[in-house]
Amino acid sequence: MLPSDGRFGSGPSRLRPEQLTSLTTTYRDLLGTSHRQAPVKALVGSVQRQLLDLFDAPDGYEVVMGNGGAAMFWDVAAASLIEHRAQCLNFGAFGKKFARAAGAPWLETPSVRSAPHGTLAAPVAEAGIDVYAWPHNDTSTGVVAPVERVVPASEALTLIDATSAAGGITFDAANADVYYFAPQKNLGSDGGLWVALLSPAAIERAERIAASGRHIPDSLNLHLAITNSRSQQTVNTPSLVTLALLETQLQWIIASGGLAWAESRARESSEMLYRWAERSDYATPFVVDPAHRSPVNATIEFAGNVGAHELSRQLRAHGIVDVDAYSGIGQNQLRIATYVSVEPDDVRRLTECIDAVVCGLRGQ
To answer: What is residue 4's three-state secondary structure?
Structure first.
């Protein structure tokens, strides 16, 4: 009955065995070498090219990398992309965190449009806004948002936090100026790196702000990151394991059919969970509107007579881990990743395990 792999966390994704093997074969002589030398630069260049391919990026778009994760990029955006004022969508923990970063003291107070957890906030055109920002998929709630421009002809930039969406949800790259993420979810890698697909307008904005006299620490200077990325390197030493795992995952996704294939695979798993919850007499999808339900991580709400904490504890005792709700979002929920590396048959087995545990808790 147990899944072949019990890792269903919405934080770091499970890694495929082939990726781990590659670290001691393909990348054995690369790990532990300088990121300023040709072999590592070739790895960075390979990752950049494959991301442009995977996202079907328009001409002029560039893939830029920097040290740190997506949380670091929130501060990069505040320092290097927002000129005066941002509009931020808050429909989960991660939109709220970006809004807090966009409230830096050198910027005007951001316009924040909020919606209750489990529902989607919508942007609106607003005078004086030079950045519109929201998550593609808010990992904390399992709500997915469209990637679209608020004002098509505007000079305002569209920033999309894609950490849990990148590599698992299709989108039109032309509708975003900055599509940024850390690669530890669908892209099957590890933390310690932020990656951003930048439009020419975003690059110009970063260059202009860097030249404006605004004080920007090197770690938050997007113009500096762009310059280094064009030389296939990061400002400081990156995790080579992160880059190696990312390259192998990109190769797998692209060879399997690209972004459309990846989303189809993730949806097979997530729809299985949603259908199971809708049939259940004790569970229901937390996101009521099917159009707003994430294909890559599903949040399931439980009836009051089923304790999610005890359910999670018993699942963990049997090797099924990291399915707890996001702190501060839901009190009686499980949050289950259906990233591309998750086998759909493991999701089916997970639902059977949950049913079995609940029957035991009910004394049936």
So the answer is: coil
Rounded CA-CA distance 310/187 in Å is 31
Cβ density class 327-361: b for 16+ within 10 Å, e for less: eebbebbbbbbbbbbbebebbbbbbebbeebbeee
pLDDT at 153 over 80: no
- Answer positive or negative: Cα dihedral of 178, 52, 150, 114: negative
CATH homologous superfamily for the domain 259-362:
Aspartate Aminotransferase, domain 1 (3.90.1150.10)
Q: Which two tokens stand for residue 17?
A: 């065995």
How is the chain split into domains, by residue range?
17-255, 259-362
Q: Is 143 helix (H, G, I), strand (E, B) or coil?
A: strand
User: Domain spanning 17-255 has what CATH number?
Assistant: 3.40.640.10
pLDDT reported for residue 167: 98
CA distance 287 to 64: 33
Tell me which DSSP letter residue 218 carries.
G
**Backbone torsion region of residue 232, taken as left when φ is above 0, otherwise alpha when ψ lies between -120 and 50, otherwise beta:** left
pLDDT tier at 332, thresholds 50, 70, 90: very high
Spatial CB neighbours of 192, under 8 Å, sequence gap ≥ 6:
67, 68, 69, 238, 239, 242
